[in-house]
Design a protein that fits this description.
Chain lengths: 111, 113
């Protein structure tokens, strides 16, 4: 699975959009980009995933660059409850569902 | 649906003691996983079970054994606990048909003295 690079921490004002970057310059054509988050001491929670196209769900949007070497997770209106560690994970599809977690980005949403 | 449940929530062991961490899911998922998370680190995969009756090693399997008891339950055993196994242990499950997300339990916080 490709390696990812994320900033260790970011701040965001409540109500503003939070844009979390992830670099995955060695991504292969069959690898997906996944985002999970972990609110303090809880188990990780799936947010969104994508292969090539931008994706949106009720939680967030995922923007993947055309060359697929980087992506951005967007929380459109961050709340205090969005304070968490966000993990960007790249892995192949198919029946291998193992996830490799890095250290992620600690997003702090400030009032 | 309870989702993924883990027992116990907390445990303190002495070096050399053994214990089994229990995990159960009620989502009829085929795949189940055990991860550990050390302070300030991401999760690391210990073992996984792609389907009932199969288990495979992950990134850090040494010192652990697993049993996929049935489709619902996947246990993790520490035969002789060591201080290096002090960690938070998370169980997760997923399914081929949905395939895209792993559902995690609340974790077991284990301290080995």
């Amino acid at each position: 699975d490709a390696k990812t690079t994320q900033p260790p921490s970011m701040d965001c004002a409540e109500g503003r959009a939070a844009n979390l970057p992830c670099n995955h310059s060695t991504i292969s054509g069959n690898e997906y980009v996944y985002w999970y988050r972990q609110i303090h001491s809880q188990g990780p929670q799936y947010i969104i995933h994508g292969l090539k196209n931008n994706e949106t769900n009720e939680m967030a949007s995922l923007i993947i660059t055309e060359d697929r070497k980087s992506s951005t997770l967007i929380l459109p209106h961050a709340t205090l409850r969005d304070t968490a560690v966000y993990y960007c994970i790249v892995r192949v599809g198919g029946s291998n569902y193992k996830l490799t977690f890095g250290k992620g980005t600690l997003l702090t949403v400030n009032p | 649906n309870a989702g993924v449940t883990q027992t116990p929530k907390f445990q303190v062991l002495k070096t050399g003691q053994s214990m089994t961490l229990q995990c159960a899911q009620d989502m009829n998922h085929n795949s189940m996983y055990w991860y550990r998370q050390d302070p300030g680190m991401g999760l690391r995969l210990i073992y996984y079970s792609a389907s009932e009756g199969t288990t495979d090693k992950g990134e850090v399997p040494n010192g652990y054994n697993v049993s996929r008891l049935n489709k619902r339950e996947f246990s993790l055993r520490l035969e002789s606990a060591a201080p290096s196994q002090t960690s938070v242990y998370f169980c997760a499950s997923s399914d081929r048909t949905t395939g895209n997300e792993q559902f995690f339990g609340p974790g077991t916080r284990l301290t080995v003295l």
